[in-house]
Every structure is written in C-alpha cells, then in structure tokens.
Amino acid sequence: MKTAAAMLAILEEGYQKKAWHGPNLKQSLKGVSAEHAAWRPHEGRHNIWELTLHAAYWKYDVRRILEGGKRSSFVLKGHNFFHRPEEGNFTEAAWKADMEILEKEHRALRSAAAKALKRSPNMKILHLLYGVAFHDIYHAGQIRLLRRLGEKTD
User: In CATH, what is the architecture of 3-150?
Assistant: First the structure.
C-alpha cells in the first residue's frame, strides 16, 4: 500500500471505518440522544456534545492548514471547545445539526487530505493527518466512557 492510501485509510479508521481497536468516533456517537450528549459528569466538565464539536473544529483546522485557508472560517464562532447545548436549544434537531458539522468537516478534510497527499506526501502532512486520526480515537474513548457514566440506572 502506498503512503497516501495508507494515510487515508488510517484517517478513515479513526473516524468511520471498522477498526481492530473497537469503536471509532462515529461509532461512539451512534445512538446518542441530545439528552445524553448534553449530560455532564460534573460542573465545568465537557460533555459528549462539546467533544463532538471539538473534533469537528480540529478537522476543520487541519483542513485549513492543508488548503492554506484563513483562520476564523469555521462554521461556528470561536475555536476549540464550544459550549453545548446552547441556551434554549436543547433539542434532537440541534444535536443532529451539530453532528452534521462533524460529518461535513470529516468529508472536507478527507478531500483536502487526498489532494495534499497527491501533491506531496511529506512528513508535515502525514503528521497532521495521523494526528487527526489519533485525536478521533482519543475522543471516541472519552465518549464511550461518558456514555457509560451517563447511563440511567433504574
């Protein structure tokens, strides 16, 4: 397997393709309700919803670097972590809309990565891309833990 194909496969495995290590980011979010996504283990701690947008933001940031784009062009105002749910917008529709941001950013990153790797699969590009894959897996683990911690017991 060539370097570019291997790197794209690693990027996809971290986000949505079946992996030997267990659930990837997308699988970790499957079936999560808005209520569960908004649950916090403690005041001041991140929830699943915020981790989802955090992952989307860093996909955007790496894509921006690969494409040479300007900062501050992310779909949401701010950077890194975004407080969720927003006041008065604690709905399944709001949660699905924010999950769609993650999906769109992943698709855009994958496209930008394929173009960048075709131009020059240098170490900077490889480092950025495997960093995104590792970041996805790291937060997938956090999300799995938050899912378990937030399960209601009857």
Answer: Up-down Bundle (1.20)
